[in-house]
Amino acid sequence: MTNYKMKLTEAQADILKGSEGEIKAKVMETMIRYGELFEATEMVPVTSKYNHLVTSFGLKALGPVYDLMDKLIREDCISEQKFTVDPRPLDSNVPSSFIQNIVFKHFMYSKQDFYEEQLNKLGLLEKDAFTCACYLDEVGNTPKQGEILSWSESSAVVYANSVLGARCNRNSGIIDLMGAVVGYVPYFGLLTDEGRKADWMIEIKTTKKPEAQLLGSAIGMKVMEEVPYIVGLDTWLGEPDEAAKTYLKDMGAATASNGAVGLYHVEGITPEARQEKRGLIKDGAKTYVIDDEELQRVYDSYPVIWKNKEDKPKLCFMGCPHMSFNQLISWTEKVEAGLLESGNKKVVIPTVFTSAPAVIKKFSETEYATRLKNTGIILSYICPLMYMNNPLSTKMPIITSSNKLRTYTSARYYTDEEILQKISGKGGAL
Predict the structure, then answer these.
(1) Distance (Å, whole) CA 149 – CA 46
(2) pLDDT, tens digit (0-9, with 9 covering 90-100), for 332-382
(3) pTM of whole model > 0.70?
(4) Rounded-to-integer distance, Cα 151 and Cα 164, Å
(5) Alpha carbons within 13 A on the beta-carbon side of 320
(6) Which residues contact 276 (CB under 8 A, 6 or more apart)?
(7) Are 290 and 203 in contact (CB under 8 A)?
(8) Does 430 have pLDDT greater than 50?
(9) What's the CA gap between 270 and 212, in Å, rounded?
């Protein structure tokens, strides 16, 4: 057995020696090597009830992943926790051309069914447990404060750390599964008390409630992977209710994708900030003031990479990360009001709202489901990012209010209000 600097417990050392099989020993070795890269000195148990994996798509090119999964399944090295996984990449209800579908099904996600079968064998929570917002109440993978996770998916990790107070590093795909298989993760970074202290004080001095995705973008691009402590946002959000959590979901996803934020604190709202207050801020922390002018500067800095910037949008995606139940309701009302004002019966741009299957199921049992359908909007469980990975999709003029989708794809960002104007045709705006 290779000598490691990391201090192992007797149980961990036994796994490394092969007490539970050669494959599990290799998984443990991988987790130790991973930890030592970040100078972790010990491994700690994963304590959450469920895990979450980022790799949800059956890309043809992921042969090594499928081989690894097969080895784990053959040796019965399945996850010690049931897990949720990121959204499925395909949904026939989402508009796509005949040629796009050929690319999706035969050149991109041809292994989707095979891969989902592997996920089921490894410990998928349930057959429809595919969402990037696994922490939503309807999905049920909601860790408690202080619990240790082995998650990846940047928007889920930052939400779990910040809004729920759980503890998780920004792991990569497959590392998330390996931590769940051995039941341990290396202790460093955002798992530690010191690693959760803030490097930045973010002062919100806007004259109105800042756009969540735009604010998150500004913070992420400024602090990058460091930890911000945000003051002044509680003025606009009030108590940490469902509306505030939805706001923080979208803001956090933008901090994680426009930067590499894995944890933020919001004064008066997030659990650690409520408990420890400004004691979370490191001595010598830097300050970043965000006012109306700064948000406008950030908005104006976004490049438009469409071939023709004047093209009319052919598709709109909302829900990256997936929309919450209360977002689906509020957006149904917004779209209805927008259509009434514009005099249109249905949206003038094909529009897809995406959400978790469990949230869609709950929503479908309300009157709002029919009302939303009557507006012409499509409700889907798809991952917009996976749709946009198709080279033919990249060439399409697609709009979104998701700063995550804007960052990773050719989609063009607009604020929520601008999106509403465009899809409803208010003022004739296309």
Answers:
(1) 6
(2) 999 999 999 999 999 999 999 999 999 999 999 999 999 999 999 999 999
(3) yes
(4) 14
(5) 28
(6) none
(7) yes
(8) no
(9) 15
Pairwise CA distance, residues 386 & 372, whole Å = 24
Q: 42-54 pLDDT, tens per residue?
A: 999 999 999 999 9
DSSP, res 167: B
CB atoms within 10 A of CB 57: 22
- C-alpha separations of 226 from 165, 261, 286, 297 in Å: 17, 6, 11, 22
Sheet holding 265-266, edge to edge: 265-266, 228-231, 198-204, 281-290
**Residue 345, Cβ neighbours under 10 Å: how many?**
10
d(CA 57, CA 413): 25
State how far the Cα of 145 lies from the Cα of 219, in Å rounded to an integer. 24
Q: Looking at this protein, which amino acid is placed at residue 96? A: S
Task: Give one DSSP letter per residue of 21-46, joined into a string.
Answer: -HHHHHHHHHHHHHHHHTT--BEEE-
**Residue pair 40/12 in contact by the 8 Å Cβ criterion:** no
Residue (of 194, 184, 200) closest to 289 by Cα position: 200
Kindly list the structural domains of the chain, giving each domain's residue range(s) and its CATH number in brackets, ordered by start: 10-191 (3.30.499), 196-300 (no CATH), 315-428 (3.30.499.10)
